[in-house]
C-alpha cells in the first residue's frame, strides 16, 4: 500500500470503527439482535467509492472486512457470524462502489487517488439513483448474509432479512447524504433562529409521542415536522434533523417506549422493522423535499443571474444603438416599425425612438435620387421582406422635417426569429455630402471633357495632315503614336460625356421596340466584324417585350452591354449572344443578355458597375458599365451580372419599365403571332 494512501485509509478505518460502535448501541432486544441504525454501511460505501480508481482498492476492501469481523467479535458476537458479517459488509460495499461509478458519477469522488473529493448528493435524480444502488447492494448483502446465517445459526426469519435490507438502505440514504453536507452549515442568524424553533418543537413532539402518550399510534404526525424542516431549513440542517430524530425514535423504541415498542411481542424483530421503516420514510421525505428546494433555488438563482446579465447586455446594447450616428430600425413582417434609434428618427425626419408598430412607407417622402417618386413596393426593406437579395440603395428623403432633402443609403438584412416570423434590420447612412461631392466632381469632369474635345479635334486633324506629309519617312511612326493616344483620349472623354448625359440628362421615355433596336445593333456589329476581318458574332433573340424608356439611353445601354460581352469573347471562339425578355414584378420587364465569353469572376460582379473599373485585358474608359447601371437606375430598374447558367460566359440581367401604350400591346400581339408561325430559321430569331 502506498504511503500517500495510508493516512486516508487510517482515517476511514477509524471512522468505520466509530460507526460500528454507534450502530451497536441501537440493538433492540437480545444482544445478538439486529441494530436499528447501522451508519457503518454508509461509511463503507463512501470508503470504497473513494478507492474505486485505486489499484489498492482490494486491500481497502480486505481491511474493511477484517475490521467488521474483529469489531463484532469484540462486542460478543460468535466468531463465525462475525466473519460472515465481515464478508457481507465487504461484498455489499464493493457492489455499491461498482454500481455508483456507473449510476452516480461524480458523487463523493471526482478523480483518481485517495484524496479525491467530489460533490455530495444534491438533486432528486441523485437521491433516486442512490436509493436504487443502495437497494441493489443491500439486497445482495442481505441474501448473502441470510444464506450464511442459515448455514451457521439455523433458518433466519424473513423479518430479519427485511430488517437487514431496510437498515442498510436507510443508512446509505441518511449518512451518505450527510457526507460533505454537514460541514456546509449556514451562517445566517435568522436561519439558526428558525432552526432552534423547529428543533425544539420537534423534541417536544417526539417526547410526547414516544413517552407521554406512547400508547396512541400517532407517529405519522411527526412527518409534518420533517416536511416543515425540509421546506424551511438548509439541507445540512434538514439531514441533521432526520439523523437526530430518527435516532431518537430508535432509542425510545429500544427502551420499550413509543408506539412501535409494543408491536407483536411474539416476533421481536417486527417492531425493529417498523421503526426502521419509519426512519426511512423520514429520510426519503426530508431529503426529497430538501433536494427539490435546493434545485428550485439554484434554478431561480440561475434565472436571476441570467436576467441580470441580459438586462446589463440589453442596457449596453441600447446605449450603443442610441449613440450610433447611423440610423438603425427593425421592422416586422408587415413592414411596421418595431424599434428605431434616435439617429434613424433624425435621418428620416422624425424624433420618436419607438414608433408603436407604425409602417415605414412612402408617406415619409421617399424618392429616387433623381427625384422620381418611390413606391412602397420598391423600398429596399419591402423587397427584402418579399425574399429578394437587396443591395445597398440610395433614397432621397424629403418631407416637412427635411424640406431641403437628404440622400440616405439603406442597407437591409433579413432576420428569422425562433418563432418563424421574419424581421428586417435597416441601417441608414447619410450620404448627402458624399453624393453632392461626387456629383460636383462628375459635373466638373463632364464640362472638362466637353471643353477638351475641341483641342483634341485640332490635334487629331494636324496629326492626320502631318502623317500625310511624312508618308514614307521614319518619323511617320511617331505620328501614329500621337494618333493612337488621341484616340484613347477621345474614348475616355466620350465615356465621361456619356456618363454625364446618363446621370443628368432629362429622360424622354417612349415605347421602344426592342426587336428592331437590337436587330439594328446586331447588324452594325456584323458590319464592324466584316470591316475588321474578324469572326462575326452570332445573335439569337427570344421574346422581346416593348419597354417604356428613353430611346437614346436604352440604345447606349444595349450597345455598351453587347460590346462588353464581345470584348470578353474567348480567343478562337465565335462570340454568341442571346437576348430575351420576360415580365417582371411591379410593371417591369426583365431582359437577359447571355454570352459564351470568358465570364466575370464572382468577386468582381458588383465592382464592374463602379466608375472607372477596368477588367484585365479590357479597353475603354472604365465607365461603360457604370453608364449602364446609371441608365437602368434612372428608369427605376436594377442590373446585375451572374454566371451563364447554360455554359461558359456571363448573364447580364436588367429591368426596365414595361411598355404601356397601345403600340406596346400591338407589338406583343405581333410577337405571339410570330411565335406560332415562325420557323426555327426565321430572320427575326436569327438576324442575318
UniProtKB/TrEMBL annotation:
Its EC number is 2.7.13.3. The chain crosses the membrane at residues 9-27, 33-49, 61-83, 89-109, 130-152, 158-179, 191-210, 273-292. It holds the Pfam family PAS_4. Its main location: membrane. The keyword Transmembrane applies. It catalyses: ATP + protein L-histidine = ADP + protein N-phospho-L-histidine. Keywords: ATP-binding, Kinase, Membrane, Nucleotide-binding, Phosphoprotein, Transferase, Transmembrane, Transmembrane helix, Two-component regulatory system. It is an enzyme of class 2 (transferase). InterPro entries: BphY/WalK/GraS-like, HATPase_C_sf, HATPase_dom, His_kinase_dom, HisK_dim/P_dom, HisK_dim/P_sf, PAS, PAS-like_dom_sf. GO terms for biological process: osmosensory signaling via phosphorelay pathway. It is found in: Cell membrane; Membrane. Residues 447-660 form the Histidine kinase domain. Residues 313-388 form the PAS domain. It is a multi-pass membrane protein. GO terms for molecular function: ATP binding; phosphorelay response regulator activity; phosphorelay sensor kinase activity; protein kinase activator activity. One of its GO terms (cellular component) is plasma membrane. This is Sensor-like histidine kinase SenX3. It comes from Actinoplanes awajinensis subsp. mycoplanecinus.
Amino acid at each position: 500500500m502506498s504511503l500517500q494512501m495510508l493516512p486516508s485509509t487510517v482515517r476511514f478505518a477509524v471512522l468505520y470503527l466509530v460507526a460500528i460502535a454507534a450502530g451497536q448501541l441501537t440493538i433492540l432486544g437480545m444482544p445478538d439482535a439486529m441494530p436499528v441504525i447501522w451508519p457503518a454501511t454508509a461509511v463503507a460505501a463512501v470508503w470504497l467509492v473513494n478507492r474505486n480508481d485505486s489499484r489498492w482498492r482490494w486491500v481497502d476492501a480486505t481491511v474493511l472486512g477484517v475490521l467488521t469481523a474483529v469489531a463484532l467479535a469484540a462486542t460478543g458476537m460468535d466468531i463465525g457470524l462475525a466473519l460472515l458479517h465481515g464478508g457481507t459488509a465487504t461484498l455489499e460495499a464493493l457492489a455499491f462502489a461498482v454500481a455508483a461509478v456507473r449510476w452516480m458519477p461524480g458523487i463523493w469522488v471526482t478523480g483518481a487517488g485517495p484524496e479525491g473529493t467530489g460533490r455530495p448528493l444534491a438533486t432528486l435524480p441523485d437521491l433516486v439513483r442512490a436509493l436504487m444502488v443502495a437497494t441493489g447492494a443491500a439486497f445482495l448483502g442481505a441474501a448473502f448474509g441470510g444464506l450464511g446465517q442459515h448455514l451457521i445459526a439455523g433458518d433466519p426469519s424473513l423479518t430479519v432479512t427485511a430488517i437487514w435490507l431496510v437498515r442498510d438502505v436507510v443508512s446509505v440514504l441518511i449518512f451518505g447524504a450527510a457526507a460533505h453536507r454537514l460541514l456546509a452549515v449556514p451562517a445566517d442568524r435568522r436561519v439558526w433562529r428558525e432552526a432552534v424553533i423547529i428543533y425544539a418543537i420537534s423534541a417536544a413532539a417526539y417526547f410526547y409521542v414516544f413517552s407521554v402518550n406512547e400508547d396512541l399510534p400517532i407517529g405519522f404526525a411527526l412527518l409534518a415536522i420533517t416536511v416543515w424542516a425540509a421546506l424551511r431549513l438548509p439541507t445540512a440542517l434538514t439531514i441533521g434533523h432526520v439523523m437526530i430524530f430518527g435516532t431518537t425514535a430508535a432509542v425510545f423504541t429500544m427502551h420499550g417506549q413509543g408506539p412501535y415498542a409494543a408491536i407483536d411481542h411474539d416476533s421481536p424483530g417486527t417492531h425493529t422493522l417498523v421503526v426502521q421503516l419509519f426512519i426511512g420514510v423520514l429520510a426519503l421525505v426530508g431529503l426529497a423535499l430538501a433536494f427539490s428546494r435546493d434545485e428550485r433555488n439554484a434554478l431561480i438563482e440561475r434565472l436571476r443571474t441570467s436576467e441580470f446579465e441580459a438586462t446589463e447586455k440589453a442596457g449596453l446594447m441600447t446605449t450603443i444603438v442610441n449613440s450610433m450616428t447611423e440610423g438603425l430600425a427593425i421592422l416586422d413582417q408587415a413592414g411596421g416599425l418595431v424599434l428605431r434609434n434616435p439617429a434613424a428618427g433624425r435621418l428620416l425626419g422624425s424624433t420618436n425612438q419607438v414608433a408603436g408598430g407604425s409602417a415605414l412607407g412612402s408617406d415619409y417622402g421617399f424618392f429616387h435620387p433623381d427625384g422620381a417618386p418611390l413606391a412602397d413596393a420598391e423600398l429596399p426593406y419591402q423587397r427584402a421582406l418579399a425574399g429578394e437579395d437587396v443591395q445597398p440603395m440610395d433614397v432621397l428623403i424629403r418631407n416637412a422635417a427635411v424640406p431641403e432633402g437628404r440622400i440616405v443609403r439603406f442597407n437591409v438584412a433579413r432576420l428569422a426569429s425562433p418563432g418563424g416570423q421574419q424581421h428586417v434590420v435597416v441601417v441608414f447612412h447619410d450620404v448627402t455630402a458624399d453624393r453632392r461631392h461626387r456629383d460636383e466632381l462628375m459635373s466638373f469632369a463632364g464640362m472638362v471633357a466637353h471643353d477638351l474635345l475641341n483641342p483634341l479635334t485640332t490635334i487629331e486633324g494636324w496629326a492626320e495632315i502631318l502623317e500625310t506629309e511624312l508618308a514614307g519617312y521614319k518619323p511617320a511612326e511617331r505620328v501614329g503614336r500621337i494618333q493612337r493616344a488621341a484616340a484613347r483620349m477621345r474614348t475616355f472623354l466620350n465615356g465621361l460625356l456619356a456618363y454625364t448625359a446618363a446621370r443628368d440628362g432629362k429622360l424622354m421615355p417612349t415605347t421602344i421596340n426592342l426587336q428592331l433596336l437590337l436587330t439594328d445593333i446586331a447588324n452594325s456589329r456584323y458590319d464592324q466584324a466584316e470591316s475588321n476581318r474578324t469572326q462575326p458574332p452570332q445573335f439569337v433573340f427570344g421574346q422581346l417585350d416593348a419597354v417604356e424608356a428613353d430611346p437614346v439611353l436604352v440604345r447606349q445601354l444595349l450597345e455598351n452591354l453587347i460590346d462588353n460581352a464581345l470584348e470578353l469573347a474567348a480567343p478562337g471562339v465565335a462570340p454568341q449572344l442571346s437576348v430575351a425578355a420576360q415580365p417582371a414584378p411591379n410593371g417591369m420587364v426583365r431582359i437577359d443578355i447571355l454570352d459564351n465569353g470568358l465570364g466575370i469572376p464572382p468577386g468582381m460582379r458588383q465592382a464592374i458597375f463602379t466608375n472607372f473599373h477596368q477588367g484585365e485585358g479590357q479597353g475603354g474608359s472604365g465607365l461603360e458599365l457604370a453608364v449602364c447601371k446609371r441608365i437602368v437606375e434612372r428608369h427605376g430598374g436594377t442590373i446585375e451580372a451572374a454566371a451563364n447558367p447554360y455554359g461558359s460566359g456571363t448573364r447580364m440581367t436588367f429591368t426596365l419599365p414595361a411598355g404601356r401604350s397601345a403600340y406596346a400591346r400591338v407589338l406583343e400581339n405581333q410577337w405571339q403571332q410570330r411565335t406560332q408561325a415562325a420557323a426555327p430559321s426565321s430572320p427575326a430569331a436569327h438576324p442575318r
